[in-house]
Amino acid sequence: MTVTEYIDVRERASTLGLLLGSELVILPRHFDSAISNADLCHEAEATTVRKLLLEAGLNVQQLQPAETRLPSAVQKSSDWIAPTVFVGSMLLTQNPYAIQVALGVLNSYLADLFKGRLSEGGVKLTLVIEQSRTKTCRRMIYEGPWSGIKDLAPLLKQLHDE
User: Fold this and answer.
1) In percent, how much of the chain has pLDDT > 90?
2) How many domains are contained in the chain?
3) Whole-angstrom Cα distance, residue 42 to residue 34?
4) Element at 86 (helix H, strand E)
5) d(CA 132, CA 12)
6) How would DSSP label each residue in 108-125?
7) Which is nearest to 110 in space by CA: 100, 126, 123, 125?
8) Domain boundaries, position 67
9) Residue partners of 36: CB distance under 8 A and separation at least 6
10) CA distance 12 to 124
11) pTM of the full predicted structure?
């Protein structure tokens, strides 16, 4: 797992003309480096992840321009690649259990997805956390077995509180 500084998600969304309407947001690929919206696309699993989180009662947004839908990027890999998820500071302040619910939903989905396979299955999950005090963002990239996702909540809370 790696943790690095990340761009200001709110400012970047504004620069690209995208409206952040939620505190839990699925970010498109190349969000941090796109020159325009034409450079953006969603991970193949973005729609599935959004639907799962909505079914769990979480308010989640898939960030894209109002007038168009972004294409999906399909990447062949033996690992499951999740979309990047932004967790706003207000979500963790007002509903600290929301991230546990979200990670639990992903964990259950992946348990079903990898059921019956010989190996546990690798996943890559990127989460961007907005820090409580400074409102700066940090990116945490988890690469490992799907069963490790459920254990990330305390680390995310720690990043939020720093």
Assistant:
1) 38
2) 1
3) 13
4) strand 84-87
5) 18
6) HHHHHHTTT-SS--EEEE
7) 123
8) 2-161
9) 16
10) 23
11) 0.88
